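ok posting inputs for the pantoate job
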Amino acid sequence: MKIVHTIEDVRKSVRQSRIEGKTIGLVPTMGALHAGHASLIEAAVAECDFVVVSIFVNPTQFGPGEDLDKYPCTLDTDAAFCENLGADLIFAPSADEMYPSEPLTWVEVEKLTDGLCGANRPEHFKGVTTVCAKLFNIVGADIAYFGQKDAQQTAIIRRMVCDLNLPLQICVYPIVREPNGLAMSSRNRYLSAEERGRALCLRKALTACREQIAAGQRDRNTLIDTMEAIIAQDQGRIDYVSIVDAETLEPLKTIAGKVLVALAVHIGDTRLIDNILIDLNNPPNIV
Ligand code: PAF
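and the output
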């Protein structure tokens, strides 16, 4: 496995793989890799002939006061992790390589970015879509792999790819959880042992919501009240708890169709997100 830091070098390697007739997979990450990323890399290795993992803590998707400065940088461990999983190339550019001058061109998806995480992180998705568009252009992959934990991000990226006719496929893989149910996240390493216990309230709230829906509850406010009460018991500070249409991300008053139940909660200083997808179309799929 090779590690490259420049756009020129990643293009050179990919060009060579193309000449050899290989299909190219891309797993975009910000590093601090965990089992959630492993599931994406494994899928890419299974489906593509040449797998690129990008590791770039993208400054343009962090707002003022967010954790850009303390975001974990673990390139050596990440490289060993990727190599074990069978990745072919790590692309780990510097911020100057990706943004050599102040960017005047941005890729922005409207509407889907307004609610959920976008409500309190107004510039976040503009940074995500811009860096993903750049990575897609740099690597020229056939397939890019994302995790369902970032449900809003995946909906937005799918829409960007569709609206801009970008020539790649987006594959989304299920959330990977720790044995106790906590969704895997690079930010879990910020949590103290006591906070790790309290962080389970995200999963508990989502499970309760799913159980109520399975029992026939269809009223948004009742479901949200239940989730908020569970989070309050563990002193979680709620950013949002919402129930939206899984494609449009519009809030649902009455629960029907393909439903995304999503939440963002601060446990201590750490902001965590989690979600579940429920398909109430015929036949319903409440797993
Ligand atoms: O999900 C992430 O880790 C990031 O948002 C991404 C897609 C790598 C863009 O920086």
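notes: The longest strand covers residues 258-267. The mean pLDDT is 97.
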